[in-house]
Amino acid sequence: MCEGVMYLYQKRLITLYFQHPQAKLPIKRTFGENALITWGRRQNDKGQLPFGGWARLEAINRGMWDPYFPKPVKIPLIKFMQKDMMGSGQWFDITKGYWVQGLVAQQDKERRVYIVTINPELPEAIYDSWPRIIYQ
Question: Cα–Cα distance between 76 and 125 in angstroms, integer?
Answer without folding.
Answer: 25
